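Good morning C.,

I know you're traveling, so I'll keep this short. The sequence:
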Amino acid sequence: MTIRFWNRSALTALGLSIPGHAFAAAGHPEPWQMGFQDAVSPVAEFVHDFHTALVWIITIITLFVLGLLIAVVVKFNEKANPVPSRTTHHTGLEIAWTIIPVLILVGIAIPSFRLLKYQIELPKADITVKAIGNQWYWSYEYPQDQGGGFKFDSYMLTREDAQKAGQPALLAVDNEVVLPAGKTVVFQVVGADVIHSFSVPSLAFRMDAIPGRMNQTWFKTDREGVYYGQCSRLCGQNHAYMPIAIRVVSQDKYTAWLADAKKKFASNDAGAAVKVASRSAPVE
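The tokens, ready to paste straight into the viewer:
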């Protein structure tokens, strides 16, 4: 079930849209882009709507305070009031400036807690994938009981290889995570060495990958495409070179990919040590 803070069409009808929210292509940032990437999951839509509402609340409060400051400067300057007032307090005003901010904060807190609950309460998973953060690449495991039974490493492509493939530099990888559209996907996130962070902005999830601790996050989207993210923790020398690429495809294409992946990654364990050693330097 999709839960939103505020209906997006209602915001648009009221003219309450934020410049920069007419986003570029979904899945990755564009040069000089301002604002979020396109929201492609229910959680991401909630985040965007909540952010839009917060920006307007902040704008209204800022303009109100600016208006008060201008009124004070104009009305209560020395020329307009040569004899200053000796008023020290006003009960009604003091009650107002205490109650009104409390009501505003309560109004913000309610959808904020709803969003937190929506993000951390895991729905029933259709597919579970384990994401392992390493220095400096990601590994993924697909469980046997869901048609998988294999694992693979995912390294960043060089800039030249990314350009040849028509993919964004510093974000494209050699082995993408492939998942079907319309399914609830739960990621089990863990670190193999230091703390990493598994984050994809367009899907609105970010979860720390901590050694010895299993964290979980989830997403669901009906939109096919490739959605990119990066490690969001300073995890060492090559922190900037461990992107995440999630390709969402139709169920038929996913089934075909699973069959090919079982063959492709069948002997992945045997060559893992060699591969890690060969990728220990930046691949920029």
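Safe travels,
E.
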